[in-house]
Write a structure and sequence with these properties.
Layout: H1 15-51, H2 57-84, H3 100-108, H4 111-153, E1 161-162, E2 167-168, H5 171-174, H6 181-207, H7 211-267, H8 269-297, H9 300-316, E3 322-327, H10 334-355, E4 360-366, E5 370-377, H11 388-398, E6 403-407, E7 414-421, E8 433-435
Parallel strand pairs: 3-4
Antiparallel strand pairs: 1-2, 3-8, 4-5, 5-7, 6-7
């Protein structure tokens, strides 16, 4: 029996299956009991760290404690999700990259981090009490079931029970405790699923994304969808314009030259031959225009060499030295590769136009969740995420739930981090390389 179905009570449940399910739920209650001290330690240390944050020591502790709290909350989130048969997403905003102070400011501005702190208070009080009650009911059933045997193993009168109206202090009387066994068993049978469900629902209520976060996410997705549609429409107009002004015009000229050549073939073969030569040149130019259009849609280097080779090709085209470190255990989906490729191309173009940099580095990796690209240059800095070029990069990545983080103080250096959630396939590792 899986934990995902442990809380679902079948209409006709056999006794043996019900026993197994409730024993499993008692084990889950024990897990909650054992996890609560960790939450208590985190609660105490987080509270103290916030109290002494002005001294600087508390800030350093928060750099360690906040991620630990997120890990513990994530464990409860996964456990509650399995118990309830749902997926509970992490509600955190993307962690700001750069200095430790930037990370702390990002965490302080994220309501989900404060909800983690509030959740620890609930987990070590109400949640812990419910978990102990679930474990206690299971232990009570076992205790009353084995009580006569345990009574026989200890000195006479050690486990005497005085219920006020009757005192059970002999071995024969010890069996009378079995009268309470059905009562305790019934409480355990009916309350154990309820208690575990209460704990899981409590964790879900406090650790799942809030309604405001979900509404904000829906708005972001809607905006991303609208921007993607606009971008696609603009791309179609660009392709149409390129075909109309380039290949189409050349093909029209080609048709006219071939028509004239056909008319002159009998009367003026030399002129016809010249027109055919011009037609061949026009054909070559038209093919070049078509290749340019196709390259703008999906560069052939991506299909041939993947993202690693495509990024290295971009680095080779730069006038300044570019070092690349690319470690990928496989290929990203083709749309993601294309988006990241054009994003890196735009970033390198910005470096060439505005940064006045002497060196550029590109790091490409996958952290198990997302494709991460870090482009850094030693130029003059001052890059603005709201600029035309960078805002276009951000819009391109937003369509894939990607993010862009810009750290560019005046005087440099500039570090731009791109993250696009995706999975890799076709395991392959590309070694580091350098282009000078």
């Amino acid at each position: 029996m899986t934990a995902a179905t442990a809380l679902a009570v079948p209409r006709s449940e056999r006794f043996v299956a019900g026993m197994r399910r409730r024993v499993a739920l008692t084990g889950v209650s024990l897990v909650y009991v054992l996890l609560a001290p960790l939450a208590l330690v985190l609660l105490c240390t987080l509270t103290v760290s916030l109290g002494v944050a002005v001294t600087g020591v508390g800030l350093l502790l928060l750099l360690v404690l906040v991620p630990l709290a997120a890990q513990l909350a994530g464990l409860h989130r996964r456990l509650a999700g399995r118990l309830l048969g749902v997926t509970i997403d992490a509600p955190y905003a993307p962690t700001a990259r750069g200095s430790w102070w930037a990370r702390l400011r990002g965490w302080a501005a994220d309501p989900a981090r404060w909800r983690d702190l509030a959740w620890t208070y609930v987990a070590v009080t109400l949640g812990w009490a419910l978990a102990w009650l679930g474990v206690g009911l299971g232990l009570a059933v076992v205790w009353y079931a084995i009580f006569p045997g345990v009574y026989a193993l200890v000195p006479e009168g050690t486990l005497a029970n005085d219920y006020g109206f009757v005192n059970l202090d002999t071995q024969p009387e010890a069996y009378l405790n079995w009268v309470l066994l059905p009562v305790v068993f019934a409480l355990w049978w009916w309350l154990e699923p309820v208690l575990v469900r209460c704990i899981a629902q409590l964790d879900r209520a406090m650790l799942a994304p809030s309604r405001a976060a979900l509404e904000r996410r829906v708005a972001e997705v809607s905006q991303s969808r609208a921007e993607s549609i606009d971008h696609s429409a603009a791309e179609l107009r660009r392709i149409e314009r390129d075909l109309h002004d380039g290949a189409q015009a050349r093909l029209v000229a080609l048709g006219m030259n071939l028509g004239l050549a056909a008319e002159l073939l009998e009367n003026d073969p030399e002129a016809a031959a010249r027109l055919l030569t011009e037609a061949r040149d026009v054909t070559t130019s038209a093919l070049g225009d078509l290749r340019s259009v196709v390259r703008g849609i999906h560069p052939p280097v991506l299909a041939d060499r993947g993202l690693a080779g495509a990024v290295q090709a971009l680095a080779l085209d730069m006038a300044v030295p570019v070092s690349t470190t690319i470690v990928l255990a496989g290929r990203a989906p083709a749309p993601v590769e294309s988006a990241v490729y054009f994003a890196v191309s735009e970033l390198l173009a910005n470096v060439g136009k505005h940064a006045a940099a002497d060196r550029v580095s590109i790091d490409v990796s996958h952290d198990g969740r997302a494709l991460v690209v870090v482009v850094e240059d030693d130029g003059v800095g001052g890059a603005s995420p709201s600029g035309t070029g960078l805002s276009g990069v951000a819009r391109r990545l937003t369509a894939f739930d990607g993010t862009m983080d810009v750290v560019s103080p005046a005087g440099g250096p500039t570090t731009i981090t791109l993250e696009v959630p995706c999975a890799l396939s076709s395991p392959r590792t590309s070694p580091s390389s350098a282009t000078d």
